[in-house]
Structures are given as C-alpha cells and as structure tokens.
Amino acid sequence: MKIGFIGLGTMGRHMARHLQEAGYELVVNDVRKDAADEHLGRGATFAATPAEIMAECDVVFTSLPMPRDVEEVALGPAGLIEAATPGKVFVDLSTNAPGVVKRLHAIFAEKGVEVIDSPISGGEAGAESGKLVFMVGGNEATFESIRPYLAAMGDQQVYVGEIGAGTIAKLVHNLAGQSMAMAFAEAFSIGVAAGVEPLILWKAIRQGAGGRSRRPFDAVRFLTGDVDKAGFRVALAHKDISLATQLARELHVPVHISQLANDDLGEAMLKGWGNKDMTALTELQKERANVTIRVPLFEIEAEIAKG
C-alpha cells in the first residue's frame, strides 16, 4: 500500500521518515520540492499536486501550518478532492479549526472518503524521536485501520471521539500550556524584581510541591533568554491559541486567563517575533517588569542533573 504525505516541514519531515523506516512506500508533496530530498533518497516518489497523491494512495496524511493551508490542499485547484474516490482516507495531522475539520469531513463524505483529524503533540524533538501523541477524532473503525501508521510515527494514539474531537483536545492542550507558561513568567518576574537572584529562585521553587512535577520547572528558556532558535514558533502558538479562544467564544465559555495569553501572543507578533520560539513570550514579561534574567545554560543543566 502506498501512503501519501503532504507537508514535509518541521514536524512532517520526521513523521514521513518514520513511515519509511517502518517499511511503508511513500508518495510525498511539499510546496518546496527540496524539502523532499531526504525522502526521495530513501525511495519515496514526488507528486506534483495533492490530487496526484490522492489518486495514487489509499491513505493521505497532511501536516500543514494553518487551517487555510489544509483547505487549499484539500479543496483548491488540483486538490485532494479532485481525485477522491470511495474507500480512501484523508488524515489531517495539523492543528486545525474544528469548523474547518467538520466541513472537510462533510464534503469528502459525499465522495465516500473518510476524514480523520489527528493533531499531534510532542514538538520537533518528539517528531524526530517518535515520542508523539496523536489526538484522534472521526470514525473509530477508520482510526483502528490507520493506527499502525500512527504507531510508526509516534508512541501514543488516543481516540478522543467524533470528527473534530481530536482538534478540540489539541487546542485545549496548547491553551493550557501557554497560559501556564505566562502565569509562571509573571510570578517569576515578581521574585526577580524583588531582588532574588534568578537561578537561586528557580532552584527553590523547583523543589516545591508544584516544582517536583518537574516538567513546567525544567523549561529553561525563560532563564537563558535563548528564544531565537524555535522549537515551536510564536506564529504557530498564536494561531493555535487564537483558534482555542475563538472556540471558547463560540461556546460562550469565559476564558479570562487564556485571552490574556492570546493577547500577549498578538503583541509578540506585532513585535515581529513570529519566528522566535514561543517561550519568547516570557521576554514580554521581563520587559514589562523591567527585570533582566540571563542564566548560563550550563549552570541550569548542572542543577537539573542533581535531580
């Protein structure tokens, strides 16, 4: 069976590689053909359009930055819909908008094609290592049929519910994470402004009840200020949190803290920080609090090694 994969960017290139390493034959596409070089070197073939991929493959994955990109690939000129035939499966791995996912599901259903939304979490490091979670929405039997492909790309596959449910789970995940990061930056800046040395403060709170869970307190970029090399870009975080707060408004759910996180992401975008790592938001708080926090990475790593 041939598998189609569209979008060989930060996440997609690693996931496509894992599929090849698992022995699957790939047909790939990206707006930059050179993004497919490593996959072509492993035996993949390149399709000029999404329609060509849909014609050749029974299952097609998309991993794209924005909802509009997914819509263009699915419904645009030479899009997937042009070659859609009964029995095929279209799996969107992007962090999308629930309304877009549901609309695509309805349109492709008329052609007999099942649409699955399966956004992922784990970042580039997780995509590279295969430590990813897939949050899946859609027909459960279809999910089980594609589960081996998901398992080749990541170690966790969670069936969330009907179409759109996977997307909602991912938006909730990202919204919670971004809001917690901003709350942490705010609290930490108070301690620094009050005169506590940053590394000492971090060591102290890291050993507290919340800190012993480790993960939130081992995110060190707010200490180093090293935000230029992006693991997950501000622009994508802004897109995700905007989608999540939009969903909240549609459901009439108040989201005061989440909206603040969204506002800060918007401010970061206006500053031209779209390509910085999403932890650049902590730089906003440092500017507002008029504090300087720059701790050498080796000092932080030494503390983490102690446990």
Descriptive terms for the model:
307 residues, alpha/beta, Rossmann fold, N-(1-d-carboxylethyl)-l-norvaline Dehydrogenase, domain 2, 2 domains, six-stranded parallel sheet, three-stranded mixed sheet, 14 helices
How would you sum up this structure in a few lines?
With 307 residues, this protein is an alpha/beta fold.
What would your notes on this structure say?
The chain has 307 residues and is an alpha/beta fold. It folds into two domains: 2-162, Rossmann fold (3-Layer(aba) Sandwich); 169-305, N-(1-d-carboxylethyl)-l-norvaline Dehydrogenase, domain 2 (Orthogonal Bundle), CATH 1.10.1040. It has 14 helices and nine strands. Helix 5 (98-109) links the parallel strand 5 (89-92) and strand 6. The radius of gyration is 21 Å and the shape is elongated. 42% of the residues are buried.
Number of domains: 2
The top-level CATH class of the largest domain is Alpha Beta
User: Helix count, per DSSP?
Assistant: 14
Helix-strand string: EHEHEHEHEHEEHEHEHHHHHHH
Structural class: alpha/beta
Total beta-strand segments: 9
Could you name the ranges where pLDDT drops below 50 across 5 or more consecutive residues?
Answer: none
Fourth-tier CATH superfamily name of the largest domain = NAD(P)-binding Rossmann-like Domain
Strand content: 5-15%
CATH fold-level assignment of the largest domain: Rossmann fold
Please give the radius of gyration in angstroms.
21 Å
* Shape summary: elongated
What is the name of the CATH architecture of the largest domain? 3-Layer(aba) Sandwich
Q: Identify the strand order in the major beta sheet.
A: 3-2-1-4-5-6
Query: Which assembly state applies to the chains in this document?
Result: single chain
Distance between the termini: 47 Å
Mean pLDDT across the residues is: 91
Q: What share of residues is helical?
A: 40-55%
- Largest sheet features: 6 strands, parallel
